[in-house]
Amino acid sequence: MTQKEIRKILIANRSVPAVRIMHTCRDRKIPVTAVYSTPDRLSAHVFMADSAVHIGEAPPAESYLNMERMIRAAKESGADAIHPGWGFLAENADFARMVMDAGLTWIGPSPEVIRAMGDKIEAKRLAIRANVPTIPGIDRVEGVEDVRRWMREEDVAFPVMIKAASGGGGKGMLKVSSDEELPGALEQARSEAKKSFGDDTLLAEKYIERGRHIEVQVVADTHGNVVHLYERECTLQRRNQKIIEEAPSPSLDEDIRNEICFTATRLMREIGYTSAGTVEFIFDSATRKFYFLEVNTRLQVEHGVTELITGLDIVGIMIDVAQGAPLPFRQADIHPNRWALEVRVNAEDPKTFSPSFGTITRLQVPQGPGVRIAQGVYEGADIPPYYDSLLMLLMTAGPDRENAIRAMDRTLSRNLRVEGVKTLAPLLLSIIRHRAFREGNFSTRFIEEHMDELISMFKERDSEDEVLKIAKYVAEISALGPQDWM
């Protein structure tokens, strides 16, 4: 592949992912075009871009999922490349092909790889061919009897996982604990899969008790070079969606770390992967074995923790690879030397996970040593009900895990303030202060097992608390002295 120069990039996304990509483009002096729906016309990513194009009304199908309008916006703005970020069209093989057919540069893996890895059944088949261990399961589940027959023949006991063959993000994924739950779970998973991905094909797998979610970041160029950037631990999830990630993983020893990372590299080389991507595994802490889950053919939300421990810019690498450049490093050059954490600050009720929409009336953004913020909002911004609830990513780093956690505690408890909408911040703080988390003793069931305890640790604060604190201080330094009403 000959090298070419990207002159302007359209970012086919919004909020946090769009802003993140813009930071790298600014470093590279590459102009960017933002796209926006009607309710996003005053969003942070629109203000930050060099130009912006309105692409439709609020529903994603009329705006951020409208492929034709994305292509038209790129051409109208003079962009010659498109970066999809994460979510929306990021793992849509048809969109990737449409971008390339329009004569634009697609900043991501090939459409063929996206299509193959987007089908969990095909991805599992390719993993087996690459000698990557996979979870025992059954493909193309048509009905209850298919699952029951597989469980009898393979001597598999409940619980099992029902999964949509397409897509990700926890949608169309259900844990089934008994035979009575099976019919309803299949119906629900099929409905969610059809609604979210337009494909109701299902598969069933053995459920790994006390599982840990480990993923390996890989980057690859078009010259045959494939390099892993080590692993991330993404075990702490709610509703099968991650909310806290860290790198490296506290679950792995060096032997398993090397094995899982080189297994991921072998798979990506086998499938002809290019650009940045992630191989996800489930790690059985009881047996110390790991199993392939899927390949995410895009920039991951949690890529920032890998950047913190390696000093690399993964978005920059994606742009370089799309221009035809070889990776500027080899595997032996990658030496992580820090520990990093990331928490996702979503606009959700921390007790129920219900979405919280409205206007951000106050926003205090954390600062201080070892802190990195990926922010998609500003004070006074409206949080619309149509899209993902992510407001910002908070990341901290330190020489070891204890110091990274200490910095995160400071960031969440002292420096962050969001008013006008509820956020997950109280839950995130409770988790990182929990003894089991600090000891590295947790699984994907941690939140559901400890939810009542975590909620009991919340410290409620609001504007009235601040006013009272100021009033007390003024009274103490004045002739009045403290008053009874205080």
UniProtKB/TrEMBL annotation:
* Keywords associated with the record: ATP-binding, Biotin, Ligase, Nucleotide-binding
Q: Which PROSITE patterns match?
A: ATP_GRASP, BC, CPSASE_1, CPSASE_2
Signal peptide, first to last residue: none
The ATP-grasp domain is annotated at: 124-323
**Which GO terms of the molecular function aspect are on file?**
ATP binding; ligase activity; metal ion binding
Has keyword tRNA-binding?
Answer: no
**Is the keyword Ligase assigned to this protein?**
yes
Spell out the protein name for this chain. Answer: ATP-grasp domain-containing protein
Q: Which organism is it from?
A: Dissulfurirhabdus thermomarina
